[in-house]
Amino acid sequence: MLVLLYDLSGKLKEHSVEGVSLIVTLIKQMILFWLLELLFLCVKVVQLQELFDVRHSVFIIGNAGTGKTMVWRTLLQTIRNSGLKAIAVDINPKAVTNNELFGVTNPATREWKDG
């Protein structure tokens, strides 16, 4: 707690009781936000696992900074920590063609080629 009260020179600043009370309230609010983010992460990890229960592979898409990487890495490490083998392949969809990515059916032979 005292670390928050130090200025850049390392000397302790003098704060009023209201200032210290504000800092304590701020820390409590930051913990609450962190717990809400943790809850959000847990929900997303469970949802991803549920997708893997019914799908062979998934694509995780979304805006930057929304936790995509954190979700799949958390699930991967959770599976590994439980003693199971897990493999994740992170690919750039722009580096491969749609047929290589998704798979394709040969129109002449009706044979399926996996992506």
Helix content: 40-55%
The pLDDT mean sits at 81
Largest sheet geometry: 2 strands, antiparallel
Tally of strands: 2
The number of helical elements comes to 3
Query: What order do the SSEs take from the amino end to the carboxyl end, as H and E?
Result: HHHEE
Strand order of the largest sheet: 1-2
The poorly predicted ranges are 1-9
The secondary structure category is mainly alpha
Shape: elongated
Number of domains: 1
Question: How large is the share of residues in beta strands?
Answer: under 5%
* Intertermini distance: 54 Å
Gyration radius (Cα, Å) is 24 Å
Descriptive notes:
There is one protein chain. By secondary structure, the protein is mainly alpha-helical. It is built from 3 helices and 2 strands, in the order αααββ. Strands 1-2 form a two-stranded antiparallel sheet. It has one domain. Mean pLDDT is 81; it is low at 1-9. The longest helix is centred in the first third of the chain and has 38 residues, at 17-54. It starts with 16 loop residues before the first helix and ends with a strand.
Secondary-structure map with pairings?
Blueprint: H1 17-54, H2 68-81, H3 98-102, E1 104-105, E2 112-113
Antiparallel strand pairs: 1-2
Helix pairs in contact: 1-2
Put the structure in a nutshell.
50% of the residues lie in helices and 3% in strands.
